[in-house]
Amino acid sequence: MSALTRTASRIRELYQGDAQRPLRGYVVVLGTYGALAGALTAAGRALGVRVPERVGLGDTVLLTIATHKASRLLAKDTITSPLRAPFTRYQEPAGQSELNESVRGQGAQHAVGEVLTCPFCLAVWVASGLTAGLAFAPRQTRLISTMLTVVAGADALHLAYDGGKQLLTRVSKEAQQAQQAQRAQQARPAGPGVG
What we know:
Strand order of the largest sheet: 1-2
Largest sheet: 2 strands, antiparallel
Mean pLDDT: 91
Radius of gyration: 27 Å
């Protein structure tokens, strides 16, 4: 065993303690991300893509909302579960068209499963892709980001609408119960000595 391998094994043992953490898998995931970022950079240079001097506030907000929506779609949506299935196990529904899934496997399979089930983790990948898209194909990236942002806005409106309906239903039931209790109170005969 080489000194580097022994050092890596020792670091892993000290880091994880009794837990089983897929550090080698994380290295694969980090290496893949770095390779993709490097490939995009090299392709951009080869194609003469000019990086913007700055990204405007409008594009930043658009990409932020699009990244949020795309991350949730990929990590939680029922329809995208086949993409996660090789790395996860279905657990239960998690609300509005979302699922809870547990990560399965070991090593790289487990590490990829963690990325695919974590909207926060996926956001880095999605944001990197959308930001690169803004440099390579700004019109198309803005169009896709606008679509994702519109879907996120529609989701927020759906949730607000459903919340409002639930609130009105609850208030209506409480008012009916209060009226019934008041009628019952009024219908009771007065007790002796009351008058």
